[in-house]
Amino acid sequence: MTTNPLSDIRTQISQLDSELLTILSKRRMLAKSVAEQKIENNKPIRDLQREEQMLVDLINRGKDMQLDAYFVKQVFQTIIEDSVLHQQALLQQHLNLPAGENGVNRVAYLGSHGSYSNLACHRYFSRFPGQLKAMGCSSFLEIIEKVEHKHADYGILPIENTSSGSINDVYDLLQHTDLSIVGEITQPINHCMVSAVPTSMDKITKLYAHPQVYAQCSHFLAQFDGVEIEHCEASSAAFEAIQNDTTGTVAALGSGEGARLYGLNIIAEALANQKKNYSRFIVLANQAISVAPQVPAKSTWIMSTEQKPGALVDALLILKSHNVNMCKLESRPITGNPWEEMFYVDVEGNIRDNNLENAIEELRASTRFLKVLGCYPTEDVPPAKLTLES
Fold it and tell me: Catalysed reaction(s) (predicted)?
């Protein structure tokens, strides 16, 4: 009986991969125990100095095993990020009662199985206890209404993209809801052209895509002058529209991960105008949450200023005087008030911090309207600074 050396090697690799998964699971459980100790002793989640020294030690040990320093750094920074986010989630669970009932988190999102919103939903709630019941919706308004009417505990909506910018429809809806932002997540975006049967780009005569996805791939799509474009409510709807095609002449745009769930073929990938393409999602709930002091926080509010020269500048100077770092400023028209703007402000900081609390109180006194939309843990986990020797 002859043996296949390649098959034997692949079997060994599969066994090692299984062992790696077991080790990663054990490490995550230990990180949970660390978080419980930090909660009990009121210690910060991160120790950047320790993280840096740990990375240096691992890189040096890796060199002795013929492992590239950049590879070791990338792997363990990903592991550290996962650990930090899970510890933050555990800390938040101790501080806030979960919105879900009977151990179930009902989450409304745009589209259906395989949409970008669906993928972000699963990533975000994977860190929280309880069963996830994902509820697909056909519009942003439907998502908000499901949460407002308590048919869902949470809603997850895209708010901005690094390629196409802000999602204006979502900003406009936030003006008119009493829901609170309780979380955020940044989802990496990999737009692909996919088909139900193997084909090539030159055979495509019709393309299904969500308008945002289409806009984000405009440079690539400029070559398809004669192709009919059909806009869909979500990338998952585009997948569903083509999944029974047998001609090889229709295609859809969406994530490669989502396309594989539908058994579709990837014709081309990495199609966005910006190769590093990310979408930021916000999580909404009926009740605001408290953010633990150990957890990096972001706060968001909307405000309108007096209709006079320098009013917005005066408001921003208040933030500067209280040492508040603004990370986003977005303006949108006020419905029913022509030429008047509502400003959306994201800042770094916990709304319970004295400097931010004082800044908001001063802003309330100097603006026509101010409404806090939420204070929530930030998903940004900056890596420990480490310069690798060449």
Answer: chorismate = prephenate; prephenate + H(+) = 3-phenylpyruvate + CO2 + H2O
